[in-house]
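Re-run with default settings, no changes from the original entry. Doing this only to confirm the output is reproducible before filing.
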Amino acid sequence: MSANTLNFPPDPWRLCETAPATAAHFLNETLFALGNGYIGLRGTGEEGYSGPAGTSMDGTYLNGFYESEPIHYPETAYALAKTNQFMLNVPNAKGLRVYVEDEPFDFLQGTVEHYERTLDLRTGLLERRLRWTSPRGRTIDYHSRRLVSFDNKHLLALQVRVTPVNFSGSMRVVASLDGAVKNLEAGDDPRVGSAVSGPALTLLAVEQDAHYAALVQKTRNSGFHLVSATRTHVHGAANATFLQQGLRLEQAYTLAATQGEVIEVTKYASYHSSRDYPEGELAERSRAVLAQAQADGFDALAARQAAYLADFWQQADVEIDGDDALQQGIRFNAYHLLQSVGRDGKTNIAAKGVTGEGYEGHYFWDTEIYIFPYFLYNKPEIARKLLDYRWAGLESARRRARQMSHQHGALYPWRTIAGEECSAYFPAGTAQYHINADIAYSIKQYWDATGDIDWLRACGAEIVMETARIWTGIGSWDRKGRFVINEVTGPDEYTALVNNNYYTNAMARQHLEFAAAIADQLAAEYPEDHARIAAAMGLGLEEPAEWRRAAGAMYLPYDQELGIHEQDDSFLSKKRWDFANTPADKYPLLLNYHPMVIYRHQVCKQADVVLALLLLSDRFTLEDKRRDFDYYEAVTTHDSSLSSCIYSIIAAEVGYQDKAYDYFMETARMDLDDTHGNTRYGVHTAAMAGTWLGVAYGFGGMRVVDGAVRFAPTLPRQWRRYQFHIHLRGCLLRVAVDAAGTTYTLLHGDALRFTHRDTVIALTAAQSTHQELA
């Protein structure tokens, strides 16, 4: 537990900072960030920040809005990724500064007392309350509220209320829209991002009057237009004076302040880009959204925010009785997932959400394997939008397959924003062909959980079949008649360019089986759809049979002597990493050793074979899982934030309850406690989703196989009870576990059938059943 934890009392519904601290400011900008899946607003004060260099990175981000630049290789090769896409720090619209006479409000100057900053997970509001005395002795009470609207993705709002405590006199309020922002330049940490060659946005026009300000800009290379706009209302003030200083627009309001009387300022801001609308509509839409927001008022926006979250928590809350700090971590993680996920079918969820510039705002396989299940079982309408994003990228995936010399099929990018491959380091990027199987796996999960045949016919079937073709393209038959897949990289990024990575081969097998089954089902039940898709793909009549043949002969490495599944053909022949003589300050290894040094050792960054044990659970015996866990745990550093949650789940399944709990705790408060030391660059969205997986899949023992759901709950000895919810086939089921057993309640829906260990249970509307723990 880090020192930072001391600033956050273990409140189950709030994150509360009780004293400002420059040392933790950079980190807390991430933790107190607000977002709505489109806009992301780091938690810097609206007045700005005057602390030491290196303790802040103020930022405003738009999910899916990016600039592009050529990737420069000192030595290039055919089909390497050509262009990078990176999320931009867009104009700062939240600027609002109060001057007491001629003294600016700055909590790092003067004296602060009664300080509290709170992120309320039930209301979606970020609030600050403090009493501040200026260097010249004037005291004010300062109260600010801020939200990024879940109701309108383009809108944010903030309100500041200032009360003079010991004086009457002149006060001034300066609202700003600042386009003089820049992106974070990367250092030696590849997880942070890449250097930007110059200003990404070109100014096209300015609009400004006493209450409204707008910057009209365009990206230099990606060609997107952006209108950033604000509307400010100062209660009781006359029209403002306004000015432009380069890319910074200001409106200044002067007021006569009376001791004890509140001055209220409300500011609304919006962002509209040509990724969503024709560029000619952006200015008009901006004015309309802000005018409506002002007509509604801050309190109405706050009420809608609270209503949205009330509905979310009713469906998605996980309750833990017995550990308030853990309860805080679980809800904090769920809230940040909701803030980060795109829900328009054109955007996805970045590795750092919209809270920071780590990984440049790119989308990874994290979505399908870690984050997608969370939304599938808690907000399935969002899960479908994530699949719509992959559908929108199918043509780009086809183009990438041709670049990689595949005559047929589609190859999805390892890291991207708009659909093109942006990974400049191909051994640990493009070589991870399992991304295709991961996407197919999520489509199968969606089909199993929802039965949404319409989406499968319209989109999903074509994705699954087109991506399955890559396996028969990249794979081959060896002299023993086995189907093998050579020169790929699995999930473990400390082992690259290997033959027959177990995870890749096992997931490819399921992918091929699923693709063949879909082809048969469409041909039998929806022949018109089958004909349409076959024509679009140029699908040969013999291809589904080829997929089945390859799947049936798929080589899955297994070491008979050790009784474990080999991570790949060469993994067990490498020497083990010398963990005993590796100093603590040499982790993570990727920041301290050349990749080749790591690649030639038997060492894992994260779950690889162990992840296959979870995703393909029904294909392994419990004894296999235990032996695999024991072996790979000993050689895994967990340098990746994706790792500990998977080890927790498998540990719970094989009966290692203490290990399961320890790994779970590493995941649940990873960002709140900054255990990986890089949360200042953004939250770890996959690990946040992994927390829910740890509860439902780990301690709840939940597995879904071909639409059949089973639970095998256990109760950690540290807890008195826990409960979670899942959406399944149009039903909402609550699973509540305590020392007396498990109670299943069908909250919504007509009927649901599932298994509790070996007992088949069928519930009807509003019915409950109680089952004993094992």
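Residues 342 and 348 are 5 Å apart (CA to CA). The chain is about 30% helix and 25% strand.
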